[in-house]
Each structure stands twice: as structure tokens, then as C-alpha cells.
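Write out the 3D structure for:
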Amino acid sequence: MDEETGREVALKRPQPQMVSKQLHGRIEARTDRTLEILQGLGFDVPTAVPVLGYTQRANHDSYFGDSLGQEYRVVVEERAKGIPLVGDPMARIIKVPIGVGQNLFTLFPIVQPEGQPPFPIHRQLLDMEERLYDAGYVLLDMRPQNIFYQPSEGRITVIDYGDLRSLDDVAYDGLRPPPEIHQFYMEMLKFYTTPEQPPAEAQGYRDPYGLRRVLRFELEMDDMADSFASAPSAVRDAALPMIGKVRQRAYGCFADFRVDLDEYLAAVKGYNLGLANAPELRQAWMEALGWLGDEYWERYLFDYDEEAAAFQA
């Protein structure tokens, strides 16, 4: 907590192990580039965590109580409210269902608070990305680990700007191709769509989906097409043309992708509403929601009782 303002804040710096070995130069360059872009945008990116300030590059050993002996920049951000859609992978060791947020609120939103529009996470991600795209930028690495969510409010916060780049970039550190909006479309399909049906038992909500290592772009799209080929017909027929267009980089404007994704989400909603075992699916969903009351999630700015109450109507 900031002593002057009383605001909950998070301090971000390179990993100490990287700093001590003087391997943080690339991270520092990326931070500088990100801050330059954010400054040009007036530090105003809706749904992204606000940057409240940053230090000059200096030795911060005395503040953090370590002895790294190197200079680096510290970025101060407002602490995000809610829970990450996917928790810390290390928590799997203690049997935490780290994928419960992604499954409950993005892939299988069987239950929603009254008055909340369907699929709010997808729509807010699209809104944020379209604004950046219109300004000449693209934000990638939109994994569920980087998205915090307040279920009762239906509100997301993106906590990682690390892959925010200009669409004019010709290369990225010589290691990856130039940024391109179809890479974002691929991430939306990879992490926020699924050919799977809603779980009939709570255990189906435990593990995250789609988080294996990212393959080459074309291979990712081929894998998605193969997976959706066996999906229910309405979902399959909405997904496959969209997957094909992304693979071919055939979307001429952002609005066209939004239309196709909306059609896919409508097909998913219609299919789920028509399932004969709807009561059993709801019971499994509510049981999985109860896991968010476990001690693990108390480390976040998240009041389980308040959030869960919105789903009890």
C-alpha cells in the first residue's frame, strides 16, 4: 500500500536472479519501450491496470533489502482487483484448481449475474485491443494469467503490458516476426474458445485450457481447426470459418473479426441453453465456484462472499 495515497499498489521490477547476473538488459529495453508507448497514449488504456509512476534506472538494493548491485527501473502500478483467470502454476503442487476462473467465466459461463451481458471478458478484451489497434499498436501475450477478473462486476483488468508494440515495428529483438493483429486473434481463439462441452462434474473446471507452449502460428491454427471439427455442429460451423480466416490472415478490419467472434459466442450460448442436462451442469458450475472461497484466493483483492452472492439468484 502506498503510504502517501493509501492506494493498493504493485511494484514491478526484473527478476532479481536476472538482475544479479546482469541479464536484464532486454527486459529493461522492453520496459522503456512500453512506457514510451503508454506515455504517448496518456497512460490511458481502458481495462488495463493503471501505471501510477516509475523510477529512473538506479540501484534499489536499500529499498528491497537485497544486494544485487545493479541498476534497473521499478514501475508502480495500481493493484488489480479480482482474481487471475489462471492462478500461479506452482499452486498445482498444493492441489489448487488454478484453471477455475478461465473455465467458469470465459469458456463455460453457465451462470451469470442478473443484468450482466453475456461473455463480458471477450468483449472487453476486444474493446481494449481495438482501441490500441486504431492508435497503431497491438498488445499480445493475452494469456489468462495476465487477466484479472471481478465476477460480480463482469470487469477485467489486464496486468501485463510487456508485449505492447507498434504495428510499425519491423522486428522484435531479432527473435520474432513483426507484430500483426492476427496474432491477437489467434490468442483469443487459443485461450478463450473451446470445442469442449460444459463439464458435467465440478472436476472438469480445475485445470487451465490451451496453456501449452505456443507453436508456430500456422500449426496453432491447424490444431484449432482439428479440435473444432468434432464440436457440436452449431459451434463448429461458427468456429471453423473464423479459424480459417485467422490462419490466412484474411481479416481486413478489426470489426470483421468482432462480428465473427460474436456469432461464435452466440452459437455457444444457444447450444448451452439447449442442453438437456442443464440442472446438472449448473450444479457442477456452482460447486466449482465454491472453490474460490478457499484460502489460496485470499491473496488477491477478492471478497468471495460478496462475489459469490451475485450468482445465487
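The chain has a mean pLDDT of 92.
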